[in-house]
Design a protein that fits this description.
The chain is of the alpha+beta class. It has 2 domains: 110 residues, Urease, subunit C, domain 1 (Roll), CATH 2.30.40.10; 43 residues. The chain is 26% helix and 26% strand. It has a 5-stranded antiparallel β-sheet, with no helix packed on it. Strands 5-4-1-6 form a 4-stranded mixed β-sheet. A hairpin with a 2-residue loop joins strand 4 and strand 5.
C-alpha cells in the first residue's frame, strides 16, 4: 500500500480548521489518515512519495486535488482580503490542477495522465479511424468505379461544345451605359 505525504499551503480540511496554512495530508492507500501542519506530519515518515509544495493548495474530496496557486492568486496581494475558497471557486481552471489522487493511486501528475499511455491511445485511435471512418462502403466504391468506367465515353461526347460561344442571358451591371461606364448622367459636365 502506497503512503504519500501531500503538501499544500493551505490544505482545505473538513475539520475544525477549514484551512490549514502550510499544511499536509498523509494518504495511505485510498484513505486520508491525517491532516495537519506540515512540520508535525513530516515527522511521521517515511513516505513512498511527497506530492505538492508550498506553491500548491490541496483539496480532498472523493479524490484529492493538488492545485497550483500561482496563477489563481495572481497578482500577489490582490486577493489577500478575500475568502480563499471563494477565490479558488471563481478563478481556478483545469490547467491549474497538478496532481490527482484517486483511491490511493496517482492518476495525474504534472498535468499528464499517469494511468493511461496517451501515445498508445492516439495510435489506436488513428488506426481505428483509418480502418473504419475513411474506408468507403461497397456502394461508394462501386459508384466510384462506374465513374472511371464511363469517363472515356462522356468526355468525347461533350468535347464539341467546349468551343461554342455563348451569349450572356443576363446583364450583370444594368447601370453600364454606352457612355463608357460612367453610369448615366452622373458626373456629366
Amino acid at each position: 500500500m502506497a503512503r504519500y505525504l501531500v503538501l499544500g499551503d493551505p490544505v482545505v480540511a473538513l475539520g475544525p480548521a477549514a484551512l490549514i496554512p502550510d499544511g499536509a495530508l498523509i494518504v495511505e492507500g485510498a484513505e486520508i489518515t491525517a491532516a495537519g501542519p506540515l512540520e508535525v506530519l513530516a515527522a511521521r515518515g517515511p513516505f513512498d512519495r511527497v506530492l505538492g509544495s508550498a506553491g500548491h493548495f490541496v483539496m480532498p474530496g472523493c479524490d484529492l486535488l493538488v492545485v497550483r496557486k500561482d496563477r489563481i492568486l495572481f497578482p500577489p496581494g490582490r486577493y489577500d482580503g478575500e475568502p480563499f475558497l471563494d477565490v479558488v471557486v471563481d478563478r481556478a481552471e483545469a490547467q491549474d490542477i497538478d496532481v490527482v489522487l484517486g483511491h490511493g493511486r496517482v492518476l495525474m501528475e504534472g498535468g499528464r495522465v499517469t494511468v493511461v499511455n496517451e501515445d498508445q491511445v492516439r495510435e489506436r485511435f488513428a488506426a481505428a479511424v483509418a480502418e473504419r471512418v475513411y474506408r468507403p462502403s461497397a456502394a461508394v466504391r462501386r459508384w466510384a468505379g462506374l465513374g472511371v468506367m464511363v469517363e472515356p465515353y462522356l468526355a468525347p461526347l461533350y468535347q464539341p461544345w467546349y468551343h461554342v460561344p455563348v451569349e450572356p442571358a443576363h446583364a450583370y451591371n444594368a447601370r453600364r451605359m454606352a457612355d463608357g461606364g460612367r453610369g448615366g448622367d452622373r458626373g456629366a459636365d
